[in-house]
Amino acid sequence: MCGRYQFSWEESRMLARIREAVRKAGAQAPRDEVFPSDGAPVLVLREGKVVPAVMGWGFPGMQGGRNVINARAETAEERPMFRDGVAARRCVVPATGFYEWDADKRRYLFRMPARTELYMAALYGVFGGEARYCILTTQANASVAPVHHRMPLVLRAQEVRPWLEDEQTARRLLHETPPELERRETDGQLRLW
DNA sequence: CCAGACGTTGTT
DNA sequence: GTCTGG
DNA sequence: CCAGACGTTGTT
DNA sequence: GTCTGG
């Protein structure tokens, strides 16, 4: 699944541009490491253009419950919480990578092989006047499986616009296997031996 | 027992 | 918070 | 997602 | 276990 990701504008001109755009629009600049409930840039389609917008990460759960940060791609089309988003409120989360933890709490950063921008398919909704997003997840592919059994629905760069633009294409992409990624272990916490 | 998914209202 | 699957 | 905090007291 | 902050 995906409970944290990296937004490193220093490593990506695209992300630097997105960051600058939202900053100029008056939104707070995203952190390098994005946590659930943070405000962060997502990409949406507006008048035929892919543009950034700042939203909060996670849908409010029922009865004041938890922040719902992920949606299963396999079932999102049927779930009441997500099905309208699949039809009409798709977005893309730009990142430089995402983190996963293994059973021993070792943390790994996953990136695109050429270290280009990593795009995660997501949905958004408006709750109490506040726009929020939820990242789609799918079964881990070969590159992620050694660490965790789920991963975000990573889109190839050329799939970003089709995901936003065309509902039928989006429904197909929900069932695609994401590209293989590069893995790097990071020091998630100090290990005193 | 645990891990993981899941409420509606924003739509290009 | 509840539910399911393991 | 993870890490860290949690309670102020009718009890053998 | 449940919640909060990051």
Q: What does the model show?
A:
The chain is an alpha+beta fold and 193 residues long. It has one domain (5-185): Alpha-Beta Complex (hypothetical protein yedk fold), CATH 3.90.1680. The chain is 16% helix and 38% strand. It has four helices and 15 strands. The protein has helices at residues 13-24, 83-88, 160-165, 167-173, and strands at residues 5-6, 33-34, 39-46, 49-57, 59-60, 67-68, 70-72, 90-95, 97-101, 107-111, 118-127, 130-139, 150-152, 154-155, 182-186. The strands form three sheets. Strands 3, 4, 7, 8, 11, 12, 13 and 14 form an eight-stranded mixed β-sheet that branches. A hairpin with a 2-residue loop joins strand 3 (39-46) and strand 4. The two termini are 28 Å apart. The mean pLDDT is 88. The protein binds four DNA strands through strand 3, strand 5, strand 7, helix 2 and strand 9.
